[in-house]
Amino acid sequence: MITNSAVSNIFVVTTYVVLFVISISTMFVHSLYQSKEYFPEERYALMQIRDSVSSTLDLHGNWTGPPCNKNSSQWTGIVCSNGHVIGLVLEGIQLTGSLPPAFLQNLTFLSNLSFRNNSIYGPLPNLSNLVHLESVLFSYNRFTGSIPSDYVELPNLKQLELQQNYLDGEIPPFDQPKLTVFNVSYNQLQGFIPNTDVLQMFSESSYDHNSNLCGIPLEPCPVPPPSPPVNPPQSKKRKLPTWIIVLIAVVATLIPFMIMFVFFYCYKKAQEEETPKERPAGNDDSPGWTDKKMQHSVSTEDPERRVDLQFFDKNIPVFDLDDLLRASANVLGKGNFGTTYKANLESGTVVAVKRVKYMNNLSKKEFLQQMQLLGKMRHENLVQIISFYYSKEEKLIVYEFVPDGSLFELLHVYDKVAKKCLSSDIFYLLVLENRGVGRIPLNWAARLSIIKDIAKGMAFLHQSLPSHKVPHANLKSSNVLIHRDRQSYHSKLTNYGFLPLLPSRKSSEKLAVGWSPEFCKRKKLTHKADVYCFGIILLEVITGKIPGETSPAGNDEKEDDLSDWVRMVVNNDWSTDILDVEILASREGHNEMLKLTDIALQCTDVAPEKRPKMSEVLRTIEEIDRTNHEND
Ligand SMILES: Nc1ncnc2c1ncn2[C@@H]1O[C@H](COP(=O)(O)OP(=O)(O)OP(=O)(O)O)[C@@H](O)[C@H]1O
């Protein structure tokens, strides 16, 4: 028999259990909701601005992943609360471009919005429905058009700064009670200042320097003339004296010529600076192998301590040391292991000469052996060593000259001439995208071809020098040289085989392998250290980022953050976020790019034994290249 009290006990217990289950599941659902880290529509809104303006900040690199993690954000200029974006503050970063229409509509929780002190042009953005907005700061830009009338409907607006733009039209009747900061000075606004309590509260400085504003607190508006208005453009025309019209026409005609003149002046100046002058005697910049001191040492030195130029290729017109000493030369660049010069021999032959550093204590035998080994190698993707020179104090390596610069320049350097002109305000307006004026984007086909050539060169080196610990050891984008054949790009590797020539760990750490995890941890170096460097180059080509400069939080650690960053983004399934904008825009080949990213991540595995061999890497890349061609 079940008593009444037992029934009521069962009822009470059941009620508690049900309540407990409900509260647990509510907490669970709530925590699920809380763990949703961001709202995709807000991210999409920010992506729109990221992809339509350029700036001095690498927004493309920094704004990746989710914008909000509850109350914090890794994104520059973004403030979050409860997973929502509540602040968008991008001030003084040379944001250039026009804002996409209505891009802010999905940032419904936005309360602070500032683009102060940039170069944004076009109409002011639409802010309708952004009811939480308290502060809107668009001053010191190049906005044009009128102030949207729906700004008067932002109920919580406290601050509106629009000064120093090119706004025209009339001021809408702002009357929000909370509006305490208001400035529209230095624009081209006209008409009456609306007679609202709020607008009349501000002083003259809020309205100063507009074309034709009147009413309190400025001068009273003129009484309109009694007669019916005549056609305004005609009346204006009639008022202008002929000489002013002529003057305007002349100035208008001259302006384009002046712009061209300034540009060509800049261009010539930049070219003059870039083309190093022929070496005057005793000039500090002159290549050392032509120094009088060296000429003297070459001719009088103990023959045991020097070797004359040794040649490896019978097809190259042979020159002797005297020819090299007489050659006109200019600096191509300075690397970690010395300076490289372009030498124009009197015979017309052009070569690149590298004066190598850190090898002073190297014996003649060691240098000779390594050079003879490297000099005999022939491959279309290796820069050929033509000859070399050894003396105790001076070591030169003469390379074939490769005409189109390095991969580093191709990927990262602004158009050099245009860059010199960037300081001028005229050209400032012409900034096209993050990497500067005049840069020709490097398309995916070119990148893939360059990568394939690097892999071929590396696979050949690894096959030819099996007993070398790390056959290249210095693979980085400045050591990948480019030569163009019409539209196609090819690459050759240079500065290989230095590791056995370096005397100490300190000098070896300047090689590209110095960045590999095994070098940093003082573990044994193998061919796989080269594979690591190859992976880093691959990431550099895919992302367009300079290794060592990727840290989103802006920390200065020397560690390779590029592969860590890519790994993080890819693991979170935001894979296309890593792609360089220049290839992202094409919308083709994304699959191949991501396959290559996968290879790059295998190559940069911390554990050398998990990295693939160069020959395997080459095979996969050739396969990807074939698919790419089939899809063309
Ligand atoms: N054989 C060459 N032909 C044409 N240009 C070359 C050649 N070798 C080097 N250069 C140019 O000279 C620049 C400087 O080269 P250099 O080898 O001195 O420095 P690096 O590439 O930074 O290498 P490292 O740090 O290993 O010394 C390169 O970036 C490239 O533009």
Automatic annotation (TrEMBL):
Residues reported in the UniProt entry to bind ATP: 354
Top-level division of the source organism's lineage: Eukaryota
Keywords: ATP-binding, Leucine-rich repeat, Membrane, Nucleotide-binding, Repeat, Transmembrane, Transmembrane helix
Organism, as annotated: Dovyalis caffra
CC terms in the record's Gene Ontology section: membrane
Residue span(s) of domain Protein kinase: 326-624
Residue span of region Disordered: 274-302
Pfam family, one: PK_Tyr_Ser-Thr
Protein name: Protein kinase domain-containing protein
PANTHER family, per the entry: LEUCINE-RICH REPEAT RECEPTOR-LIKE PROTEIN KINASE PXC1, SERINE-THREONINE_TYROSINE-PROTEIN KINASE CATALYTIC DOMAIN-CONTAINING PROTEIN
Transmembrane segments: 6-29, 243-265
Location, primary (coarse class): membrane
Location within or outside the cell: Membrane
Single GO molecular function: ATP binding
